[in-house]
Amino acid sequence: MTDAIVVEGLVKRFGATTALDGVDLTVAEGSVLGLLGPNGAGKTTVVRILTTLLEADAGRVEVVGLDVSREADRVRAAIGLTGQYAAVDEYLTGFENLEMVGRLYRLGRAEARRRAGELLERFDLSGAADRPAKTYSGGMRRRLDIAASLIARPRVLFLDEPTTGLDPRSRLSMWEFIADLADGGTTILLTTQYLEEADRLADRMVVIDRGRVIARGTADELKAQVGGQRLEFTVTDAAVLPGMVERLRPLAVEDPVVDVQARRLSLPVSGGAEVLAEALRRLDGATAEIFDVGLRRPDLDDVFLALTGRVAEEVATEDDPTAEPAITGGAR
Ligand SMILES: Nc1ncnc2c1ncn2[C@@H]1O[C@H](COP(=O)(O)OP(=O)(O)OP(=O)(O)O)[C@@H](O)[C@H]1O
Ligand SMILES: [Mg+2]
């Protein structure tokens, strides 16, 4: 299989800041790469260099076999980009925005209009097609932005934090759109701060921190490094914990961890929500003391802790609405 994206020894400095310090990665044609990292890791810088918006200081970058600095025009014709911040024209309607982008890509007028209608339909924006984009919600803008990046049917699509700031329902539908594109054969490089998102969409992941790759692999490989998911029980009386451990031990893939002070039992498990159901069945009736229970998946914080021994200090900022703990009952 050929690689649609090849990056070797990529270095980028901004004055005294080394934003990228020798990044290597490849993305096989037709696959999805998740580029993960906390704020300031260098994700957007990678995307900007790969999409010809920024010159690297060192390194080799090829997209669809073309050198991004020497053949920038040809690269641009082959790619689509949805940046971290929506780039729609506020005063144009959704339809006009897409038509304009189509014209910029040198589609004929009729073809640009046809494509605009098609994409509005696909992204559930037909009803808002004739409203100015400034009346759109954040989620609608995001969808319009992605629609715009698809106008010219790019072979390679770059999505920089496609779901940051979206509510859970919009995030789920965005995931479906992206998964559909991937199924259709588009090569995708997406950046994200959420392991769950990369897990859901990406074939492979590269984790960067301070401009360096600190881990790479499939979701399973990364999670194996992190320790996988666990069932967490908090009880009202620590005295019931030993009995629970006995009943639940057969479900554990590693040793259960009991924290008497916190009245908590953490059980490393594999599988989805069904393991939670099975655990409750095994506790059969002895659930009166359970105060809280959840299936906890590793998030990027856990990855960081496991890989670097420190917490990703910049991940959970106050403007990050999704920084809630990842206690979910099988959202996939
Ligand atoms: N134009 C610029 N001038 C100076 N420094 C920059 C510039 N662009 C990025 N940087 C710095 O380079 C580093 C990487 O930034 P980058 O935007 O690539 O991070 P990121 O991983 O996309 O972060 P976020 O999750 O916040 O979007 C940061 O330290 C940032 O401050
Ligand atoms: Mg960024």
From TrEMBL:
Keyword ATP-binding: yes
Compartment(s) where it occurs, according to its Swiss-Prot or TrEMBL record: Cell membrane
Coarse class of the protein's main subcellular location: membrane
Keywords for this protein: Antibiotic resistance, ATP-binding, Cell membrane, Membrane, Nucleotide-binding, Translocase, Transport
One Pfam family linked to the record: ABC_tran
Membrane topology field: Peripheral membrane protein
Residues in ABC transporter domain copies: 5-235
Family classification: Belongs to the ABC transporter superfamily. Drug exporter-1 (DrugE1) (TC 3.A.1.105) family.
Name the record gives this protein: ATP-binding cassette domain-containing protein
Organism: Blastococcus carthaginiensis
